[in-house]
Amino acid sequence: MLETDVAVVGAGAAGLSLAHRLAEAAPGARQPSTVLLDAPPGPLRPPPRTWCFWESGPGRFDAALTASWRHLRVRPPSGTAIDGDIAPLRYKMIRSEDFEHLVAHDLAAHPAVRRLEARVETVEDVPGGALVRLRDSDGRPRVLRARWVFDSRPLGSLPAARTTLLQHFHGWFVRTARPAFDPRTAELMDFRVPQPADGLSFGYVLPVGRHQALVEYTEFSHRPLSASGYEAAVRQYAEEVLRLGELRVLSTETGVIPMTDAPMPRQVGESVFRIGAAGGATRPSTGYTFAGIQRQTRAVAAALRQGRRPVPPPAHPARSRAMDAVLLRALDSGRADGPALLCRLFAHVPMRRLLLFLDGRTRLHQDLAIGLRAPVGPMLRSALELPGLPRRPFDTP
User: Fold this and answer.
1) pLDDT digits over 160-188, tens only?
2) Which residues, if any, are the signal sequence (predicted)?
3) What is the Cα 207 distance to its own chain's centre?
């Protein structure tokens, strides 16, 4: 039987982030032994992804960044674009393969963290810890005993919720024949795309040069599109809206992020915890997850070094989650026009402050001022309706 202080299940953004923090030696603190359990190549391993977040100044993972921007743009369905300077914040883009390479390089220099390729079958509490039953890369059954287990694997099904939408997207990394992009500005939301019957959609452009960018179609609705539906949506955006002309698709990415007001339990046993999206790191109203993961994993690593019980904290304040529940309900019920609501917020609230709000880093009076920029009637009606709504399981497509 293998033994360790900490077992981290899954090597996506959350698992890698926690392992990276646990690899650091803190003066005067005990460094826990850690095993990072990485699924073998195949369907259990996360597909390549792009993560975005914002922060001020130099960041922990800057060496792996693809690009960053201090200027953001939001385009309404028609009319003048909304530009904003978010300094001293930077909107940062990191690709999962670059993130993994950086973490793997740093872990190689820290023997306290061991990486093991294995398929985890069960995790169970036992007195004084937990047992992780797994099969190694050769298919042999093994057992790992850990004092603490942090499971970052996606949930098999979502908890019951009053409202659940899906943020689903398909993007192309493209190279254009002509200089088609402004590398100084990221297009955060471009609503000049056809809107679905239910929900909302927008384009998203992250330029990394005059000729190269991630061009993406994103939709908030109840069901993902077919592969051909995504292909048609991105093509329409690239050709008819952006008018990029001749281009070459270098790679693609597709994803689905639940936007839900369901409570996401972070503790599932005496010694077993969930982190990452499975532990509530995703901001329900936006789908952004990377920054929430960093808050969770930073707190967990600090607790372990200090000998405290390492329960992952909520990634987002209770007030933020309550406001998100109201927004999701207003969008899902059709009371609020999504593009109009979001463009109104970006037009009337300084973009830097709005990003801080989306990170849960604004004060109550600032939250109220931002809330007053939303359509008060639909939001108030949705807020009053929420307490009486039952929580129902989500019918996963």
Assistant:
1) 999 999 999 999 999 999 999 999 999 99
2) none
3) 20
